[in-house]
């Protein structure tokens, strides 16, 4: 017990002298902590910082979030990716308001029942807001513990997940779990970094296994990643005489659920214009219409997601008459859209396509 206390005390001492000044560290409001943890699940602090502030401003309470349309939440989330986080956030806010009378759950077990909340997030909220000694284990914690204790069990294996959780729980400071948890996360993020860790400045450099054995680059161990799926997307970007286009909502499971995109033709390989106009989707949209087609990007745009890479072509399609179910180009910003589409819209607005079509 003395060793674990010494470890935690050294960690907390380092943290109190080196912690970043972040807004979610100035509160124990569980709603605010929950927001920050969900935003930062797959996002760097530098990117998530402004999103957190915007969410707090637009949805000051869980009631504001619950009572807002999902599309408004997705709009505000735009650019963060992993949009299921935003949908789960909205779903859980409604659950808290409707089922729990707006009272945020106050124990690890109850917090874990919220949709989109796993062990790490529940542990963080329970310890920071309610002083429950439940250890957090994220990528930063895996890395620090693996290197310091010399653990080579793969961190993404069932055995590793269990082993590191048990160790982290053993090490936690029961009298100050909130600061301990924040300290061990900050330590991994700023000191025991994935590349070029600051070993010479580390408070544990005299007792670190990886440093002593020259195994910094070998730890932590991860099992081989799953195969990346390659997909080919062809977007039909319509321009009508009145500057309107077609945008559809993605439904069903899969990427970008409930977000909006241009009509999509997915192909097994890169296709040309002839293959495009022979596709049933193109025929259904533009049959008996006079069309002028131009490929906007000569090279496929590669958009990388966690387990798939999207090779995308944007096809500009101009027709000489108006059709139904179209949207004004100037109103596209009102829709929640994937970053891939947003980047394209911003790019095309810098061209002369809006005024000319040669």
From TrEMBL:
Transmembrane segments: none annotated. One of its GO terms (molecular function) is metal ion binding. The keyword Transferase does not apply. NCBIfam families: mutY. Belongs to the Nth/MutY family. InterPro entries: A/G_AdeGlyc_MutY, DNA_glycosylase, Endouclease-III_FeS-bd_BS, HhH-GPD_domain, HhH_base_excis_C, HhH_motif, MIG/MutY, MutY_C. Its EC number is 3.2.2.31. It comes from the Bacteria. Its cofactor is [4Fe-4S] cluster. It is an enzyme of class 3 (hydrolase). Adenine glycosylase active on G-A mispairs. MutY also corrects error-prone DNA synthesis past GO lesions which are due to the oxidatively damaged form of guanine: 7,8-dihydro-8-oxoguanine (8-oxo-dGTP). One of its GO terms (biological process) is mismatch repair. The lineage of its organism: Bacteria, Pseudomonadati, Bacteroidota, Flavobacteriia, Flavobacteriales. It catalyses: Hydrolyzes free adenine bases from 7,8-dihydro-8-oxoguanine:adenine mismatched double-stranded DNA, leaving an apurinic site. Binds 1 [4Fe-4S] cluster. Residues 39-190 form the HhH-GPD domain. This is Adenine DNA glycosylase.
